[in-house]
Specification:
This protein is α/β, with parallel strands linked by helices. It folds into two domains: about 220 residues, Amidase signature (AS) enzymes (Alpha-Beta Complex); about 170 residues, Amidase signature (AS) domain (Amidase signature (AS) enzymes, Alpha-Beta Complex). It has a five-stranded mixed sheet with strand order 7-6-8-10-9. β4 and β5 form a beta hairpin. α4 crosses α7 and α8 runs antiparallel to α20. The radius of gyration is 25 Å and the shape is globular. About 40% of the residues are buried. It holds the Pfam family Amidase.
Length: about 500
């Protein structure tokens, strides 16, 4: 028998298929090459940090870096301002500590070597901003001239920004020295900190647990660098100083969307008793035993200090969560969200959210139809006003979950997502540690729905004895100073209690 001769169409189809596979292989190979380059750049940056710190220590062996790192931001700033502490000493103390934490937690994406040049240009006689000589870390998503803002996307590698963001410009004009960028989860829509490019960032207190997200790199760095400044800090006074520096003429001139309202010292410094609403649960995500205890103990401290605590009834959080997703992210059917992931090697660990975005239009339409209109903001403020509240005390998801679990538990963000959707200023203050008794009580954790998510969340909470647990301090829109004042009150009371104990 003679072998069959392939037809011309079959040959063409086969050739086209092979060509398509070849092109796809070449493209994927190119993407992986970019990932490798980004990882090598990260390692070079860490090596540059190490080299710079070693050179400084050889030239200045008597500098006590530990004492520098022990200073709060206000103390540090004062010593730099009055000349008793050279900016150079501060800078290399922070670079050295940041390097140590980066090696332990993988929190830094890039060293901004031009920070050394900025340091050299600081002059003793020049006008000094509020953050003069203070090293600051910058979240990867915040644009810095000459550096990538990757957000965990391969497509953003080797695309340096043409100019600094307004935030970075203001920080520099106030004398701050941005020196590192920190890791984030892909797309920022996660409370873990992991991406394909640079990998997982760990919690510096326990490496098996997540540092949170999307500012996980910042969280890890601040968790192991005493008194670092940024969008987060180790103490409330540092945050207040940062806010004073940011709410300035430079900010108002550079960004017309920011109301020209300078920091209100009178509100922040007030000692008038507060009328504080509180709740222990949102009835959507059952709090861990440690979360519930944190609110109760903080409530007691505030009452003993002369403040009035008023129970607040939280309703419709489930609808708030669903509407945030469907009316926000799904306003265009998820097209914008999905577009960010086009051509990526990894599609992100978005869990249920990713599935919902990719679901057929009829499912999105059905889910949008069955969710109630988003009226929570008006209801929430109406109840707030009816009770004549100044601020609100409420739980913060905690302790830090085990690595890998946030992707499975998108629904657990209800405690923080509520205030993201309401656009209220919120601060988080650590108030206690997980105890052995908390761990024992956790064994009886069932959740409100007793489903797979509740069982998984119980596992994610477990084995966390000694880990910090925080509360949220909430104020109404445009009342950041009152929020900070409340945070300071909680922080002070907790510190006094710990000193007595």
């Amino acid at each position: 028998m003679r072998a069959a001769v392939p037809s011309v169409p079959a040959l063409l189809c086969g050739s086209a298929g092979l060509l398509l596979l070849l092109l796809r292989w070449r493209r994927w190979r190119g993407l992986w090459r970019k990932v490798k380059e980004a990882r090598e750049r990260q390692e070079r940056g860490l090596e540059q940090m190490d080299k710079a710190v070693r050179a400084f220590r050889q030239q200045h062996p008597s500098v006590n870096m530990v004492s520098i790192l022990s200073l709060s931001l206000p103390e540090l700033s004062k010593k730099i301002q009055d000349g008793s502490l050279p900016p150079e000493h501060v800078f290399y103390a922070y670079v050295g500590k940041a390097l140590q934490i980066a090696r332990e937690t993988n929190c830094i994406t890039e060293y901004m070597q031009e920070s050394e040049t900025q340091l050299q240009h600081t002059k003793p006689g020049e006008k000094k901003g509020l953050l003069y000589g203070v090293p600051v870390s910058i979240k990867d998503s915040i644009n810095c001239q000459g550096h990538d803002s990757m957000l965990g996307f391969v497509k953003n590698i080797d695309k340096p920004m043409a100019e600094d963001s307004v935030l970075v410009q203001v920080l520099k004009r106030q004398g701050a020295i941005p020196f590192v960028k920190t890791n984030v989860p892909q797309s920022l829509i996660s409370y873990d900190c992991n991406n394909l490019i640079l990998g997982q960032t760990c919690n510096p207190l326990l490496y098996t647990r997540t540092p949170g997200g999307s500012s996980g790199g910042e969280g890890a760095l601040i968790g192991g660098v005493t008194a670092a400044v940024g969008p987060m800090a180790k103490d409330v006074e540092s945050l207040a100083l940062c806010m004073r520096a940011l709410l300035c003429e430079d900010m108002f001139n550079l960004d017309s969307t920011v109301p020209p309202l300078p920091f209100n010292e009178e509100v922040y410094s007030s000692t008038q008793p507060l009328r504080i609403g509180y709740y222990e649960t949102d009835f959507f995500t059952m709090p861990s035993p440690a979360m519930r205890r944190a609110v109760r103990e903080t409530k007691q401290l505030l009452e003993e200090a002369g403040h009035t605590l008023v129970p607040f009834e939280l309703t419709n959080v489930d609808y708030s969560v669903y509407n945030f997703c469907f009316r926000g992210m799904f306003a265009d059917g998820g097209v914008t969200f999905l577009k960010n992931f086009e051509g990526e090697l990894e599609k992100g660990n978005m869990g249920v959210l990713s599935w919902l975005v990719k679901s057929p239009n009829w499912i999105k339409t059905l889910l949008s139809w069955i969710t109630k209109p988003f009226e929570s903001c008006h209801q929430f403020i109406a109840q707030w006003k009816k009770l004549n509240l100044d601020v609100m005390l409420c739980p913060m998801l905690g302790p830090a979950l085990l690595i890998g679990y946030p992707a499975k538990l998108s629904v657990a963000v209800s405690y923080t997502m509520l205030y993201n959707s309401l656009d209220f200023p919120v601060g988080v203050v650590p108030v206690t540690l997980v105890t052995d008794e908390d761990e024992k009580e956790l064994k009886n954790y069932r959740g409100y729905f007793q489903d797979w998510w509740d069982r998984t969340l119980a596992t994610a909470f477990s084995s966390a004895e000694g880990m910090p647990v925080a509360v949220q301090c909430v104020a109404l829109p445009w009342q950041e100073e009152l929020c900070l004042r409340f945070m300071k009150e909680v922080e002070t009371l907790v510190m006094k209690k710990n000193m007595i104990v």
